[in-house]
Structure formats: C-alpha cells, structure tokens
Amino acid sequence: MTGPIFYWRGPAPYHFVTVPDEESADIRAIASEVTYGWGMIPVVARIGGTEFETAMFRKDELYVVPVKQAVRRAEDVEVDDEVTVHLRITRR
C-alpha cells in the first residue's frame, strides 16, 4: 500500500499511514481472528529497507499503521511524504 505519513496528536502523539479502503475491508474481515485485544492487529511492516514490528488499529472505518521515529529517520521520511508500506499480519 502507498500513502502519505500523517501526524496525529491523539492520546499519544505519533505518525501513521492510513490503510486504503479495500485493504482495510480485507483486514476487518479477519480482524477477530488476528487481534490481540482492543482491536490491535500485530504486523511486521517494511518501508524501504527498514522492517519493524508494530500493531495497526482502526481509526474510523480504516486502519492506520504507526510509523516509528527510528523508521522515519532511517528512511528519511516525514509528514506528507508518500511511502510504500509492505504489511504482513502476524499472530502474537
């Protein structure tokens, strides 16, 4: 998937990429099988050459993928940059 990085102050400030409609629908279809609680879906994500573990969650009807500061620095990306994110859902 490809999308822009955005900043969300939320309860804990963080940077995210939104999972598009079709992919979010696919994830919703299996969410109950892979969530580890509170709707969190564990994934291994990769942006560029940097792979990292995180957990995506629903924001409104779409899922969002947190992008750690270390990943943004390693890949030299910031808010509004378009990034391609490869996701693999894992089970904890």
Automatic annotation (TrEMBL):
InterPro entries xref list: AF2212/PG0164-like_sf, DUF1905
One Pfam family from the record: DUF1905
Gene3D superfamilies the UniProt entry points to: AF2212/PG0164-like
SUPFAM superfamilies: AF2212/PG0164-like
Listed name of the protein: DUF1905 domain-containing protein
Organism whose genome encodes this protein: Cellulomonas edaphi
